[in-house]
Amino acid sequence: MSAAPPVALTIAGSDPSGGAGIQADLKTFSALGAYGTAVLTALTAQSTQGVTGVHVVPPDFVREQLETLVEDVAVDVVKIGMLAGAETVEAVTAFLAARAGEVPVVLDPVMVSTAGSRLLDEDAVQAILTMLPHVSVVTPNLAEAGVLTASEPATDLAGMREQAAAIRALGAPRVLVKGGHLAGSEVSDLWLDGDGEQVLSTERVDTRHTHGTGCTLSSAITALQPQRRHWLEATRDAKAWLTGALRAGEQLRVGQGPGPVHHFHEVW
Ligand SMILES: Nc1ncnc2c1ncn2[C@@H]1O[C@H](COP(=O)(O)OP(=O)(O)O)[C@@H](O)[C@H]1O
Ligand SMILES: Cc1ncc(COP(=O)(O)O)c(N)n1
User: Which pLDDT belongs to residue 164?
Assistant: First the structure.
């Protein structure tokens, strides 16, 4: 008899177009052999062309969803995405702090959608900083790493290295600064943990269908961590799998804007 799949929890917002948010997370969990559970923080009115509105779940009800779930279900690993506002960040931080170190946590500090809509209030950034010591890995893109370190977004690997170190100094033990928005024939992400840094490079897929890549990468790391039991290995495998999902995205016909990656491409 094979072992039970790990139970993964995503705490994130809904993207009705299915490329990002909770929908991307649950598809990724399923594609990579984890059982998915989900606590919603916000609904967005969203398509591949952008976000037209956000309806925030009351923070107390986020708390209630979390408490009710974990009273019954033993969660093996957690991914955090869109948190919308400071009060929700604080509710989720309190939930993590009460379980200090028991469960691995991947934080994708979602702030602004690709098309430019705010998915986190400006005044919630301070609250995100207090969450950092309670997570296992944080995965900012270039813009988010700039906001977390109160500096301009990095424009090269040296800048990413500096900001990764600054984010570790804020208390996150492992940092992945994602370089998807830099030009070049390769995409390079910078990993930094207590053992040092690794540059994770893959070929750049020539596609405009990149909606939800950040959500998909962080949930792939989440699904794989309990199976690989090693963060860097889980992250490398997640990135390789995402590259395949980006390549296969051309097969999908979803929307008129930048479409989603294909979560159910053949697993390597
Ligand atoms: N065109 C691409 N080809 C291959 N990998 C990509 C491409 N665009 C982004 N990625 C990868 O997708 C992940 C998400 O990166 P990024 O786009 O920087 O973050 P976000 O989606 O949060 O803005 C990273 O691992 C990055 O290297
Ligand atoms: C509900 C929700 N959460 C997150 C994102 C960010 O998406 P991306 O992965 O493209 O940065 C999004 N567009 N919508």
Answer: 98
pLDDT in tens, 99-110: 988 899 999 999
List all residues whose CB is within 6 A of at least one atom of ligand 2.
Answer: 12-15, 20-21, 44, 46, 81-82, 110, 113-114, 119, 211-215
Beta strands 196-203; 186-193: pairing state: antiparallel
**pTM for the predicted model, two decimal places:** 0.97
Cα–Cα distance, 246 to 131 (Å, whole number): 30
Q: Which two tokens stand for residue 135?
A: 């997570």
- 7-251 belongs to which homologous superfamily? Ribokinase (3.40.1190.20)
Could you read off the pLDDT of 196-246 as tens digits, one per residue? 999 999 999 999 999 999 999 999 999 999 999 899 999 999 999 999 999
Query: Are 80 and 105 spatial neighbours (Cβ–Cβ below 8 Å)?
Result: yes
Q: Where are the domains of the chain?
A: 7-251
What is the Å distance from ligand 2's center to 264 Cα?
19
ipTM of the prediction: 0.98
Ligand 1 binding pocket mutation candidate from 200, 213, 221, 235 (most atoms within 8 A of CB): 213
